Fold this protein.
Amino acid sequence: MRKSPIDGTPLLRENRHGVDIDVGFHGVWLDKGELLLLTEAERHKQPGFAWGDLFRREVNPPVNRERHLRCPVCHGPMGIEDLHGVALDWCKDHGVWLDSGELEAMLSNLRLDPLFVGKVATRLWEGKF
């Protein structure tokens, strides 16, 4: 069982959009490739345009660049990468950690990207995350 890189508590398996992810009180762990699957599932379920998008603003959750998290899989140090207004912690070999609210912020921010809304897949980070 994987543990939260924040406090070491066990992460629970949860299915979101057909993708099994690891969820904890402080955030979610996404194995490599699951971030792309989640964003693509979100893109396919959304209409091309929603009235709420007229009032949507980018959400930038606070970032603590001083902390050093360890990967729940290999326990190696994770780096910080900025993606669609969200700073995510990531292990290049295993996946990403998103603090509470960051996944939702990223999905909301993606609605501001005309390529995402225009049904162009966000494959830029397919092999990375």
Remarks:
- Helices lie at 34-45, 102-110, 114-117.
- The chain has a mean pLDDT of 81.
